[in-house]
# Entry
Amino acid sequence: MNKLILSLMLMVVSLFYLSGCIDSETKTSVSKHPDAEEVLRLDENANIFQWEGLIYKTDIDWINELELTKKELVGEITKLFTNEDTKSFKNGMANKLPIGTKIYSTNENEGILIVEYNSEEKYYLAMVEG
# Structure
């Protein structure tokens, strides 16, 4: 009988001890797409623009090697980013592309846009968290 009581007490104490080790708070992290500030902080010479809330960047070697075709005109660059406040970066704004530059979707990949200016095409990859 003493062994049974002693065993039960040991189990109860062990349960209390182990329950103290459990983290009762659940931590959730929310991932977000990089903004202009983050992209330019990592590469101050990055050639970027913002379209539909995403930052697109060019001069990425493996993207430049792809053979993509234009699908349809989706818009154009409407503003040039000129100040140091990257929080003011908005849709249609670019840091190196001129105003009026045409933006096209591609037939092959939704995460890449084709930009055309001065009879030259450049591929821009969406900077997404993932």
Notes: The first helix runs from residue 2 to 19. The beta strands are 48-51, 54-57, 70-76, 79-80, 93-94, 102-106, 112-117, 120-126. The mean pLDDT is 85. The longest strand covers residues 70-76.
